Amino acid sequence: xxxxxxxxxxxxxxxxxxxxxxxxxxxxxxxxxxxxxxxxxxxxxxxxxxxxxxxxxxxxxxxxxxxxxxxxxxxxxxxxxxxxxxxxxxxxxxxxxxxxxxxxxxxxxxxxxxxxxxxxxxxxxxxxxxxxxxxxxxxxxxxxxxxxxxxxxxx
Length: 155
Hints:
The chain is mostly beta strands. It is built from no helices and 10 strands. The protein starts with a strand and ends in a 9-residue tail after the last strand.
């Protein structure tokens, strides 16, 4: 079932906070009258640190923004917005994310765009949210899997 959303929306309702490693698969539908310019996934913690992974329709780029993702004082070059250009040819945007405590991998548009980033939050990111800026976005489908280690233990 498709869902319209704006602002930020918890993927784990009822304070069922995330921890460990996850695979998140999302498909967004771009509607003709959509006002939202930026949409995606936010990882955050109680200290206000956050990592944003999304698509910017205005610039036609996927991005990972780790400006506020935790420790970065070891290098002036570490903070930043990392982008990958992609011009949409249709109305669907898909993202597959592999998330663990210190890294994220983005496989977008069935692997046509691939990005990896590391981050160092001062406490684990325990919130995973969808976000949409400047209007509503439509989530056509979404699936979240909790990942286990090769030994079968959950993180």
